[in-house]
TrEMBL record:
Its cofactor is Mo-bis(molybdopterin guanine dinucleotide). This is Putative thiosulfide reductase/anaerobic DMSO reductase. Keywords: 4Fe-4S, Iron, Iron-sulfur, Metal-binding, Molybdenum, Oxidoreductase, Signal. Signal peptide: none annotated. Residues 52-108 form the 4Fe-4S Mo/W bis-MGD-type domain. One of its GO terms (molecular function) is oxidoreductase activity.
């Protein structure tokens, strides 16, 4: 047998490519050799060789919401891939996005309304018509508005973005209830609070195309992160083509840590301490830049000079020495100094932070430390640094608001337990209902949310959802029968994101919203009738 070497391997690869292109040695139905190689945006059936129908839309498998193409053959969705003309994704779509096909054809999808006929949690249901389902829901919420207590109707959602969010809020405004719950506090609320308190907005991004140095705290950007596909490929390109270093602080060897220039293990929740010790090094060694000081308020004095601001920052971080940080975080002081100097001396640098940093006690303050570290090196909203994401400027039309506008004070958590609940405390919504001091909803409707599974203390959540004395009537809008739906009184089947029209308002370099085209009609006449559509 001939020994395999590099030359033989290349010959074998060339021969294999010839087979693929010419179709020699493949089945008669293969496309190879019959279709000319061309850019993306088109797809062909390997069986009939006919071009499939291509429909542009946007993904909804995560909050990134990448532009993508759906390919339909004989009325069936067969493939999802990145939109070739997207300047955000550059035509790419992750594996999770491509797996969105499974949502449409999931064998256990709920396809018709169901009314509970047994006790909550007994899994006893009766199939009903949409007319009966909507009449039942209307009979529960109309008396609340007629009695001047619209706030006793509560709606809680997980992920509603773009026009879907606008329609929901428009409906609740028209009804008169401000008792609206979210899920942001168990997603990335502390990160938003930390950023909003410093530059007025949230959703940071990173200019990897022009950066020279990257430090990552608690983000697994190569696997999953807000704006994942658009940013991760640019970071990889910067590392490969320009040798940009990436230092990842993480408690575990994530996929991002494994591909970094160096993985720096750190104890849980100590990211902010290490950041402040880096600030200590940069300030005391004179490596800071004055450019951003004019935008900063770091003392009670609104009119403080730059020198006074510098002194205030030094005083604030004086105790956070690298040696102190080493004792608490496990990161060697020498390593902290090395990375701090590299970060400060780079012409431009990016700092990444995410759930590994912010989803802990004092997570918002740890995000503020990340912002401070970026600001003192003039890497905040500058070329090659951490920048604010640009969103779409879409404005949805609204219906007239109801004359009575009320809301139960149950979405911001128990008093004193969250310093700045600007994005609510959703994990305490059910405990607040149980407590009852601030009132309880008589009708509780949730969508794209699974409170009995995601908030922790699942047994308590299940007990509250099961108790009719706490929640007299509940409605679940879902595509599947999940842990929370089993305790609902009424289940309304939803459509998937591939079966509805939408606009999306995610990060947009052009400031233009994505229009999500419906790829397929809903799978049954029942769902189509709900949305005023035909069943074709």
């Amino acid at each position: 047998m001939k020994k395999l070497n590099r030359r033989n391997f290349m010959k074998l690869a060339a021969a294999s490519g010839t087979v693929m292109v010419t179709g020699i040695g493949t089945s008669q139905n293969a496309l190879a050799g019959s279709i000319k190689l061309q850019p993306g945006g088109r797809d062909f059936s390997p069986t009939t060789k006919k071009e499939r129908q291509a429909i542009p839309t946007a993904c909804w498998q995560c909050v990134t919401r990448d532009a993508m193409m759906g390919y339909v053959e004989d009325g069936r969705l067969v493939k999802l891939e990145g939109h070739p003309d997207s300047i955000r994704t550059l035509g790419k779509l992750c594996a999770k996005g491509q797996a969105g096909v499974n949502q449409v054809y999931f064998p256990d999808r709920i396809l018709y309304p169901m009314k509970r006929v047994g006790k909550r949690g007994e899994h006893k249901w009766k199939r009903i018509s949409w007319d009966e389902a909507l009449d039942l829901l209307a009979s529960k919420i109309k008396p609340l508005r007629d009695a001047g207590t619209p706030e006793l109707f509560m709606y809680q959602y997980g992920r509603h973005k773009g026009s879907q969010s606008s329609i929901m809020h428009d409906f609740m405004d028209a009804f008169g209830s401000h008792t609206i719950g979210t899920h942001t506090s168990v997603c990335e609320g502390p990160k938003w609070v930390g950023q909003e308190s410093l530059w007025g907005g949230m959703y940071d991004n990173w200019d990897y195309d022009h950066t020279d140095f990257v430090v990552n705290f608690g983000s697994n950007q190569f696997e999953t992160h807000t704006n994942h596909i658009p940013t991760s490929q640019r970071l990889i390109r910067a590392m490969v083509e320009r040798n940009v270093p990436l230092y990842t602080f993480d408690v575990r060897l994530s996929n991002t840590a494994a591909k970094s220039t160096e993985w720096v293990p750190i104890k849980v929740g100590m990211d902010g301490l290490v950041m402040l010790s880096m600030v200590n090094v940069i300030m005391n060694e004179g490596l800071f830049r004055r450019d951003h000081l004019k935008y900063m308020r770091v003392s009670p004095d609104y009119h403080a000079s730059d020198d006074e601001k510098i002194a205030a920052i030094k005083k604030h971080v004086a105790k956070f020495t690298p040696e102190f940080a080493e004792k608490e975080s496990g990161v060697p002081a020498t390593k902290i100094k090395q990375i701090a100097r590299g970060y400060a001396k780079a012409k431009s640098a990016c700092l990444i932070s995410y759930r590994g940093t912010v989803m802990h006690y004092h997570g918002a303050d740890q995000e503020r430390a990340a912002m401070l570290l970026s600001a003192i090196t003039n890497n905040l909203d500058t070329k090659g640094g951490r920048v604010m994401g640009v969103g779409a400027g879409w404005k949805s039309p609204h219906s007239p608001k109801a004359k009575v506008q009320k809301g139960l004070d149950i979405v911001n958590g128990f008093p004193g337990e969250a310093a700045f609940p600007t994005h609510q405390v959703s994990q305490q919504n059910l405990p607040m209902i149980k407590d009852g001091q601030n009132g309880r909803p008589k009708v509780y409707w949730w969508s794209c949310n699974n409170m009995a599974f995601i908030n922790g203390n699942n047994k308590e959540a299940e007990a509250i959802l099961k108790d009719e004395s706490l929640i007299p009537f509940s409605v679940s809008s879902n595509i599947v029968y999940d842990e929370s739906s089993q305790y609902a009184d009424l289940i309304l089947p939803d459509v998937t994101y591939l079966e509805r029209w939408d606009t999306e308002d995610m990060v947009s370099p052009t400031g233009v919203a994505d229009r999500c085209r419906r790829i397929l009609h809903p799978p049954t006449p029942h769902q189509a009738a709900w949305r005023g559509e035909g069943s074709g």
